[in-house]
Design a protein that fits this description.
By secondary structure, the protein is of the alpha+beta class. The strands form three sheets. Strands 2-1-5-4-3 form a five-stranded antiparallel sheet. A five-stranded mixed sheet has the order 7-9-10-12-11. The longest helix has about 50 residues.
Length: about 300
């Protein structure tokens, strides 16, 4: 049976019923929900075997159906309507994601056409005026169109539902996409994003959407620390990654300074670090995090593409 003596958990705060499973298979209820359920239901040997095998079990108690499932040394119970509601919600969410993915390319293409027209107009207007005020406005239009194009490409990359195909990708493009997605959030919090030009670097062979997602998760976690500034830089290095031999790599560093909260405190995605590490591991790279008081650094390393 699990050891709970060190730090009792407030099981009664949970909607789900919870019971500890003893070595002899007996169930020890941990909250009122499970006590009521076990008082009205006695499991048969066949039901115990079904649960021990990892299968869900549906039972009816007091006119309401419940779903029970073993999770290691715990037995969990939830009203069946809540389970069904979550399953339906997950199906609808997956369907929406697939629909957005199928539309992403066409949306990005249409938006690119509009932005290209705006940039062409700006270039023409810039060549026909000498007025400083007008040229400043034209410059702002060009910069806005450029940012819009980067944002469209980044969104399309994140939304497109493709097979996990690795390709040679410029790290600078990944950084540009992530910054396009995060710039508004940084500006809203008055956080400066300082990006060093990622030029002269070999490409990395990755699934572009996953590499961009890994960077975006880390950048979001750093934004949640409310720093004064985040520096983003990429370098080419030789290092052994993921326990392999030394090889050519491209490393990206996200460095936050003047942080007023620790990394992970109140993070919008509490699983960001686990997800980031998995995304890097799947690409043959590695991820590291260092915290030092009011500063935090996230390091990403991907092997360079073989042709580099």
């Amino acid at each position: 049976m699990p050891d709970r003596a060190a730090a009792p958990f407030p099981f009664d705060a949970l909607r789900e019923g919870v019971a500890a499973v003893a070595g002899d298979g007996a169930f020890a209820p941990q909250n009122d929900c499970m006590r009521r359920l076990l008082a009205a239901w006695t499991p048969t040997d066949a039901e115990r075997r079904q649960l021990a095998a990892g299968h869900a079990l549906r039972i009816a108690v007091d006119g309401r159906e419940h779903v029970l499932r073993r999770a290691g040394d715990w037995l969990l119970a939830m009203p069946a309507d809540a389970v069904d509601d979550r399953a339906v919600a997950a199906q609808f969410a997956a369907a929406r994601a697939r629909q957005l993915g199928s539309m992403a390319s066409s949306i990005a293409h249409d938006l690119a056409n509009v932005l290209n027209a705006a940039m062409g107009f700006a270039a023409l207007a810039d060549a026909t005026t000498q007025d400083p005020a007008e040229r400043r406005l034209i410059g702002e239009l060009q910069r806005g169109a450029t940012r819009g194009a980067a944002l469209a490409r980044a969104l399309a990359r994140m939304l497109q539902g493709r097979a996990r195909e690795r390709a040679a990708v410029a790290v600078g493009d990944l950084i540009d996409g992530v910054c396009a997605l995060a710039t508004r959030a940084a500006q809203g919090r008055k956080i400066a994003l300082a990006v060093a030009p990622a030029t002269g670097l070999p490409p990395v062979r990755v699934v572009a959407a996953e590499a961009q997602q890994a960077l975006l998760l880390g950048l979001g976690a750093l934004l949640d620390t409310a720093p004064q500034r985040i520096d983003i830089a990429a370098t080419a290095e030789r290092r052994a990654v993921a326990g392999g031999r030394e090889r050519a790599c491209v490393c990206v560093r996200l460095a936050a300074s003047g942080c007023t909260a620790p990394v992970g405190a109140g993070a919008s995605d509490p699983d960001w670090q686990t997800t980031t590490s998995l995304l890097l591991a799947h690409a043959g790279g590695e991820f590291a995090r260092r915290d030092d008081g009011t500063a935090a650094t996230l390091d990403y390393a991907w092997p360079a593409a073989p042709s580099a």
